[in-house]
TrEMBL record:
Its cofactor is pyridoxal 5'-phosphate. InterPro entries: TrpB-like_PALP, TrpB-like_PALP_sf. Gene3D superfamilies: 3.40.50.1100. Coiled coil: none annotated. GO terms for biological process: D-serine biosynthetic process. This is Pyridoxal-phosphate dependent enzyme. GO terms for molecular function: ATP binding; L-serine ammonia-lyase activity; magnesium ion binding; pyridoxal phosphate binding; serine racemase activity; threonine racemase activity. Belongs to the serine/threonine dehydratase family.
Amino acid sequence: MNKQALIDTRRRISPFVHNTPVFTSHLLDDLAGAKLSFKCENFQKMGAFKMRGATNAIMQLSKDQQERGVVTHSSGNFAQALSLAARNLGVTAYIVMPNNAPKVKKDAVLGYGGLITLCEPTIKAREQAAANLVAEKGATFIHPSNDLNVILGNATVAMELLEVHPDLNFLISPVGGGGLIAGTALAAHYFAPQCLVIGGEPMAVDDAFRSLQSGQIETNLTTHTIADGLRTQLGDINFPILQQHLDHIIRVEEDDIVSAMRLIWERLKIVVEPSSAVAFAAVLKNKAYFKDKKVGIILSGGNVDLDTLKFS
């Protein structure tokens, strides 16, 4: 892994992804006591940062591999990202989804051209169904977060933000499966070594926080958080990156997440999903730590189910 790998990745995927805007707000600056810059991946194609990693992972496959297609298991943003990225590149995407996935998510995958295989809503069933497709179709499995090419694609979020604001003191990203925070940490390491990278994580699913403490990948016994995109856990590829380059993780409560999301909707006038609000919630919870500093906040996506979303 080196700086050139990130530069090459940025050049490779730039025709297929948006360079998303950076928003600011004097009111939110005053509220936080810091200078905030919000990198708005809710304006990314398919509505989330995962378009970047999915595109890079497919582009790094050989022509023969691309002809046989790609496989993933996901009920959320990566299912949509891989489907759209594959369609853009002329590749078939086989998507394993649990049979209880919301219809709106299945419809989105189908709309992007993904071929859905339904399975029982367990990790074991999802992994088995994906393995069956790999064996049957000869397709390549792409993990949503624990894949180096996915991580490198995700790193371009922070690379773009640091081009606009190279003097940031802190970069904050939500932590779920680890693909975004690992890419963010690599980008800061190579392009802004003075910038500390911090993760925001729900207290209810704080496996990454505990993993960094114990030195091994921890799991969660429950997934009871409004930040549904952060219910996954770290992997053996992204965890060592976090151990080496992540400063620390701030945990936030559910009420903190809801309050931060409401502020973003109200003051920035944009739609973000609960997972996106976790990074901002971490700043609001630790105002003294960030006081008078320049803080970059990654808003990871804006795919919300408006039928179930509640602010209180």
